[in-house]
């Protein structure tokens, strides 16, 4: 029986590759050295949390005495999320169409649409909230607009990817019939993308509910305003009540969204 | 009822004097690869013509060039009285509306019903929401789409999602969509491929029925020798990007046709 020598376990790499690996490792190590907290500081911090006068001890038991007003604020938070997500999803569709290779009317338009989507996605929603507070003032309207812009960036990208990935056969068939661009998009592209659009829209709603609480911290309406006030006034027990009620809302929305996803897709 | 209602007559229908399609000196190259090398032929209207040739002979490219789904590199195409190669975008769209294409892959929208897919055929002449979905279409358009489905024997599956239908049924829905288009000329790119022999035969009968009953002209690519012989009035054979055979089917010699088919496609 002929013996075949086994190949080397590792391939010989070029010097440039070794240098690239070393540079990557140096970046990771230097990043830890510059920013990571030391274990001693973490230990002392955890000790303070659990001390008799520490934050956790002051949070328990949660104070639900303002259940009614907090519930109304939660409803406002949910409404902000729904309104912002709905507007964002609606406006994401035309942006996504313009950003799609096959559907965009011109390469320049496609590049511009992609740049706008990238800008909306890259700037954090808190920054958008601060910008819209300057534009429309404090309150939920600024939050709704911040969520809308954030969702155009989020859904615009995923909608465009879904449209890029669809089978082009039905589109070509309708084009060969003489159908117009809008007819092809509505008749062939949207039905094919429906499962993906639905999943993205539900994720966008979940993301909006979670994000809308944080927007209140900068004054853009919703439960975040109450949470910030509770922390500022050292009402940690009320802050915990708000956090628990917010958690219940987020879980409820996630469960409902998961159920709808299973039913529709 | 899933039996096709369009049955071909035994003899060819009336043939008008003028050609419905004239191709002269057609060339198509992809980079340095020349696929079509000066193709010349003309088709009389009201006839079924089988386009045959081995894999890579340029049949599908020729079909696409006829309605400029592929841009010809050189040559002239006159289809339904229009010089195809010089048409602007709008005029080209209007011409394509008169040409029904049956694809090898049915190219239906999978998540939609058979009725909605058939309704899409009306996008050749109408636009707007009434031709997007059957649920919002006008009564007249729904009735017309049902008539088209009835002609291919699928009226009872109108609301079935097309991705739940068999391959043969999907091909028939595609033909019904083409009927909804009111075509004057039909191009069929291997409509019998990927179908079992019986279903493939039904689809070919259906297409020939349109030629015989409606007086439409048909140019059909088939990889099955018996279909080329049984469902055409004329045979055009392509070899190495050129027309190597052009004769009435009645005069065709089976043995001489075999060279246009790949060995595995022969019975």
Which features characterize this protein?
heterodimer; A: 265 residues; mainly alpha; MetI-like fold; 11 helices; extended; B: 267 residues; alpha/beta; Rossmann fold; 2 domains; six-stranded mixed β-sheet; four-stranded antiparallel β-sheet; 8 helices; 24% strand; globular; disordered N terminus
Q: How would you describe this structure to a colleague?
A:
- The complex is a heterodimer of chains A (265) and B (267).
- Chain A is extended, with a radius of gyration of 25 Å.
- Chain A starts with 14 loop residues before the first helix and ends with a helix.
- Chain A contains eleven helices and no strands.
- In chain A, 35% of the residues are buried.
- Chain A is mainly α and 265 residues long.
- Helices cover 78% and strands 0% of the residues of chain A.
- Chain A has one domain (66-264): MetI-like (MetI-like fold, Orthogonal Bundle), CATH 1.10.3720.
- Chain B has 267 residues and is of the alpha/beta class.
- Chain B has two domains: 18-98 and 184-254, P-loop containing nucleotide triphosphate hydrolases (Rossmann fold), CATH 3.40.50.300; 111-182, no CATH class.
- Chain B contains eight helices and ten strands.
- Chain B has helices spanning 59-66, 89-97, 114-119, 139-151, 167-180, 197-214, 225-230, 254-257; strands at residues 19-30, 33-44, 48-52, 74-79, 82-83, 99-102, 185-189, 217-221, 234-239, 242-248.
- In chain B, the strands form two sheets. Chain B has a six-stranded mixed β-sheet with strand order 6-7-8-3-9-10, with helices on both faces. A four-stranded antiparallel β-sheet of chain B has the order 2-1-4-5, with helices on one face.
- In chain B, a hairpin with a 2-residue loop joins strand 1 and strand 2 (33-44).
- The radius of gyration of chain B is 18 Å and the shape is globular.
- The relative contact order of chain B is 0.20.
- The model of chain B is unreliable at 1-17 (pLDDT under 50).
- At the A-B interface, helix 8 and helix 9 of A face helix 2 of B.
């Amino acid at each position: 029986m002929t013996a075949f020598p086994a190949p080397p376990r590792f391939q010989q790499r070029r010097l440039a590759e070794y240098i690239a690996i070393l540079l990557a490792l140096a970046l990771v190590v230097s990043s830890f050295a510059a920013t990571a907290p030391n274990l001693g500081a973490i230990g002392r911090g955890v000790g303070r949390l659990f001390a008799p006068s520490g934050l956790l001890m002051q949070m328990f038991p949660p104070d639900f005495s303002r259940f009614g007003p907090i519930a109304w604020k939660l409803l406002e938070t949910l409404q902000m999320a729904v309104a912002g997500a709905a507007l964002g999803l609606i406006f994401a569709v035309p942006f996504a169409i313009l950003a799609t290779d096959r559907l965009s009317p011109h390469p320049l338009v496609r590049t511009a649409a992609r740049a706008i989507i990238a800008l909306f996605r890259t700037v954090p929603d808190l920054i958008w909230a601060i910008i819209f507070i300057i534009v429309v003032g404090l309150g939920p309207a600024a939050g709704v607009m911040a969520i809308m812009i954030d969702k155009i960036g989020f859904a615009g990208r995923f909608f465009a990817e879904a449209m890029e990935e669809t089978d082009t056969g039905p589109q070509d068939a309708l084009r060969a019939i003489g159908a117009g661009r809008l007819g092809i998009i509505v008749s062939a592209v949207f039905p094919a993308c429906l499962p993906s659009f639905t999943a993205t829209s539900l994720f966008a709603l979940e993301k909006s509910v979670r994000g809308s609480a944080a927007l209140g911290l900068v004054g853009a309406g919703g439960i975040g305003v109450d949470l910030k006030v509770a922390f500022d006034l050292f009402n940690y027990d009320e802050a915990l009540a708000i956090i628990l009620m917010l958690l219940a809302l987020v879980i409820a929305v996630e469960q409902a969204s998961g159920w709808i996803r299973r039913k529709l897709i | 009822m899933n039996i096709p209602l369009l049955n071909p007559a035994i003899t060819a229908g009336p043939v008008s004097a003028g050609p419905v399609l004239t191709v002269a000196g057609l060339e198509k190259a992809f980079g340095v690869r020349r696929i079509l090398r000066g193709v010349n032929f003309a088709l009389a209207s009201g006839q079924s013509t089988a386009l045959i040739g081995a894999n890579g002979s340029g049949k599908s490219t020729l079909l696409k060039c006829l309605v400029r789904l592929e841009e010809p590199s050189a040559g002239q195409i006159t289809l339904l009285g229009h010089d195809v190669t010089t048409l602007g975008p709008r005029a080209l769209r209007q011409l394509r509306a008169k040409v029904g294409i049956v694809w090898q892959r049915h190219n239906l929208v999978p998540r939609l019903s058979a009725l909605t897919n058939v309704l899409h055929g009306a996008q050749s002449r109408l636009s707007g929401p009434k031709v997007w979905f059957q649920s919002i279409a006008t009564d007249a358009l729904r009735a017309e789409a049902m008539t088209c489905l009835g002609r291919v024997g699928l009226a009872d599956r109108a609301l079935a999602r097309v991705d739940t239908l068999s391959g043969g049924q999907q091909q028939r829905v595609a033909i019904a969509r083409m009927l909804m288009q009111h075509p004057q000329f039909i191009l069929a790119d291997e409509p019998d491929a990927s179908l079992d022999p019986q279903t493939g035969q039904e689809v070919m009968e259906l297409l020939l029925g349109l030629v015989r009953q409606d007086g439409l002209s048909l140019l059909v690519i088939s990889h099955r020798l018996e279909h080329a012989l049984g469902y055409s009035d004329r045979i055009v054979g392509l070899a190495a990007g050129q027309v190597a055979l052009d004769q009435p089917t009645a005069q065709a010699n089976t043995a001489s046709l075999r060279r246009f088919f790949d060995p595995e496609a022969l019975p």
